């Protein structure tokens, strides 16, 4: 019987534990407070989905598993990796960039556990739909040849299709940047700019992600896949996205602090917008949509001024295909 450990009992970690159980694995779900499990057998963040008996909820750091899914927020990733005791491959399921170091998840793994086998899981996945067993797809990326495919075969099912990739930069960037563009998409709807404006903005945002991926050493083609365009489409159109809700509240006139409160908590795109614009600046890549989001969420610029600046940008050819993209 396959053994899969999941670190983090939030909505995404709980959904992955439910999926792993359906995939025929015995599951160890790590939670800070196992006693928080409800009388129904469900975890608080996904109270409609009781965990089956094959899922053991624990707060033990020692893990014996064939693979370990780490589903904790970016700000806690380093401390969790330092405490975790396991030799199994680690699949990092968080998305974002650490603002202080500009590190992606696998950079944090390399800094805390050098030489430990690791991968990232990313794609257009809302936790409650994965928990319900609805059809979905994602990608697992690892630098080591063959590792991602092996992990995908262990975790994947016909209802949760897992593709593999070796482009860890492109996959991680797509997962981080989509939260920033989702805030911008929410702003367009909240400000009453219409669906045409949202579609145009999301498309230009995708172009920014492609340019930045190439500059950072990733493959622009990855951005057209599940971890790029797929995740972007879901996050920019689905009202379950907290980042979209924050953007919509900003468009309606709320302050950044009020917008996050109205959306139900911190949105990853707020901090990520500042980290990605800094990465773009260092790489000399133009990212006007990301710059606009960063300026709005930090209060450096007024929403109306930012919109006017975007609309006044000079026009040119829609696509200038970089040589590395033509194969």
From TrEMBL:
Molecular function (Gene Ontology), one example: NAD binding
Active site: 178 (proton acceptor)
Residues binding sn-glycerol 3-phosphate: 95, 123, 178, 231, 241-243
Binding site for NAD(+): 8-13, 127, 242
Catalytic reaction annotation: sn-glycerol 3-phosphate + NAD(+) = dihydroxyacetone phosphate + NADH + H(+); sn-glycerol 3-phosphate + NADP(+) = dihydroxyacetone phosphate + NADPH + H(+)
Top-tier EC class: oxidoreductase
Any one GO BP annotation for this protein: phospholipid biosynthetic process
Domain Glycerol-3-phosphate dehydrogenase NAD-dependent N-terminal: residue ranges: 4-145
Identification of the protein by name: Glycerol-3-phosphate dehydrogenase [NAD(P)+]
Record keywords, A-Z: Cytoplasm, Lipid biosynthesis, Lipid metabolism, NAD, NADP, Nucleotide-binding, Oxidoreductase, Phospholipid biosynthesis, Phospholipid metabolism, Signal
SUPFAM superfamilies the UniProt entry points to: 6-phosphogluconate dehydrogenase C-terminal domain-like, NAD(P)-binding Rossmann-fold domains
Pathway given in the UniProt record: Membrane lipid metabolism; glycerophospholipid metabolism
Signal peptide range: 1-20
Family listed: Belongs to the NAD-dependent glycerol-3-phosphate dehydrogenase family.
Listed InterPro entries: 6-PGluconate_DH-like_C_sf, 6PGD_dom2, G3P_DH_NAD-dep, G3P_DH_NAD-dep_C, G3P_DH_NAD-dep_N, NAD(P)-bd_dom_sf
Stored PROSITE patterns: NAD_G3PDH (PS00957)
Cellular component terms per the entry's GO annotation: cytosol
Gene coding for it: gpsA
Subcellular location: Cytoplasm
Binding site for substrate: 95, 242-243
Entry's EC annotation: 1.1.1.94
Glycerol-3-phosphate dehydrogenase NAD-dependent C-terminal domain ranges (all copies): 167-307
Main subcellular localisation: cytoplasm
Binding residue positions for NADPH: 12, 32, 49, 95, 127, 242, 266, 268
Function statement: Catalyzes the reduction of the glycolytic intermediate dihydroxyacetone phosphate (DHAP) to sn-glycerol 3-phosphate (G3P), the key precursor for phospholipid synthesis.
């Amino acid at each position: 019987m396959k053994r899969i450990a999941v670190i983090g009992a939030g909505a995404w970690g709980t959904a992955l534990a439910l999926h792993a159980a359906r995939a025929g694995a015995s599951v160890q779900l790590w939670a800070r407070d196992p006693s928080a499990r409800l009388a129904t057998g469900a975890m608080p963040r996904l109270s409609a989905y009781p965990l089956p008996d094959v899922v053991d909820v624990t707060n033990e750091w020692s893990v014996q598993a064939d693979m370990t899914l780490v589903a904790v927020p970016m700000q806690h990733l380093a401390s969790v990796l330092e405490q975790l005791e396991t030799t199994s491959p680690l699949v990092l399921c968080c998305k974002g960039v650490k603002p202080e170091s500009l590190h992606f998840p696998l950079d944090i793994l390399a800094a805390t556990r050098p030489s430990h086998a690791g991968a990232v899981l990313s794609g257009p996945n809302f936790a409650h739909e994965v928990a319900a067993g609805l059809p979905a797809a994602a990608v697992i990326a690892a630098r080591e040849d063959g590792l991602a495919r092996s992990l995908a075969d262990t975790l994947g099912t016909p209802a949760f299709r897992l593709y593999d990739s070796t482009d860890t930069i492109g996959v991680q960037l797509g997962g981080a940047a989509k939260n920033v563009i989702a805030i911008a998409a929410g702003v367009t709807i909240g400000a009453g700019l219409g669906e045409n404006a949202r579609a145009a903005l999301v498309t230009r945002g995708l172009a920014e992600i492609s340019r930045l991926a190439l500059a950072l050493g990733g493959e622009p083609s990855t951005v057209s896949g599940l971890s790029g365009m797929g995740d972007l489409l879901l996050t920019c159109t689905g009202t379950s996205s907290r980042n979209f809700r924050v953007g919509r509240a900003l468009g309606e006139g709320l302050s950044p602090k009020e917008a996050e409160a109205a959306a139900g908590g911190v949105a990853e795109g707020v901090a990520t917008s500042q980290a990605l614009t800094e990465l773009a600046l260092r790489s000399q890549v133009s990212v006007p949509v990301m710059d606009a989001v960063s300026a709005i969420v930090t209060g450096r610029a007024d929403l109306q001024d930012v919109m006017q600046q975007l609309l006044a940008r000079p026009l040119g050819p829609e696509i200038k295909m970089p040589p590395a993209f033509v194969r």
